[in-house]
Amino acid sequence: MKKSIKILISIIVIVGIGGLTFVIHNHSVQQKNQEITIGTIGSDAKIWNYIAKLPETKKENLKLNVQSYTDGVSLNTATAQGKVDVNAFQSYAYFLAYNNQNKENKLSLLGTTYLEPLGIYSKKYQKINEIPDGSTIAIANNPANTARGLKLLEKVGLITLKHNFGNLSGTNDILKNPRHLKFKEIDDTTGPRVISDKTIAAALISNTIALEGHLNVLTDSIAHEQVDQSTKDNVNILATASSSKQKVKYKKLVSLYHNKKVQNYIKKEFDGTKIEVNKSSNYLRK
């Protein structure tokens, strides 16, 4: 009888330990496969939905939930509050401006992704130097894109900007305008239509809007941004909440983005207009 009781107790102990081991193991697997919510805007959703299905993503024990937003401020706020784990939509300049205005709910930089070059488009002229003196140039009416457009116009030699020109500066901060150019501020989304306006010599159009208007910045623009230190603030990044304790795990998304398979997909899907920028954080901070 005593022997039977001992055997029964041994069985209960073994089963109990086995059950506890299973629970611990199962909890560990659930932790490893914890879902990461990625917030995106526009075409980036395609990229991250593609990455979500890759074997390489599963191998990293990552499960991605891609959510699309229409408003950058809302997406950054959701990220800072932890409702979104990582976001993939904004330039480094946009990120800096957000952090400057939200000092108690800041975001942290995880890594770089791409540059979508801003382009100068014209239906009248094939080269920058063909644009006549006194011409009207259409430029975006939001501060960040206005400043970006003016920087490009300086880069191609049409104007000179003041020394303290910043990421939110405007036409009042032009130092020299030797060609006496005039500037017409427009809603950025109307750019592809504006270049047909006979009163407009050229228009600065962001790549996202250009693609929607069936324009390729690499082949249809008369000038566009290049990847160099002058455009580093326009490089798109991945960001998470500064308070997040999962930054090491989230940084795996940067490596996945720069996977050769992913880059081949992006190049084909977007006609080469999302130019890969695989740089360290120091590149942006210089």
Task: Give the arrangement of secondary structure elements.
Elements: H1 2-32, E1 35-41, H2 44-52, H3 55-59, E2 63-69, H4 72-80, E3 86-91, H5 92-101, E4 107-112, E5 114-115, E6 119-121, E7 136-140, H6 143-155, E8 160-161, E9 174-176, E10 182-186, H7 191-194, E11 202-205, H8 207-212, H9 217-220, E12 223-224, E13 236-241, H10 247-250, H11 252-257, H12 260-269, E14 275-276, H13 281-285
Descriptive account of the structure:
The protein is an alpha/beta fold and 286 residues long. The protein has 2 domains: 133 residues, Periplasmic binding protein-like II (D-Maltodextrin-Binding Protein, domain 2); 107 residues, D-Maltodextrin-Binding Protein, domain 2. It has 13 helices and 14 strands. The chain has a 5-stranded mixed sheet with strand order 2-1-3-13-4, with helices on both faces. The longest helix has 31 residues. About 4% of the residues have low confidence.
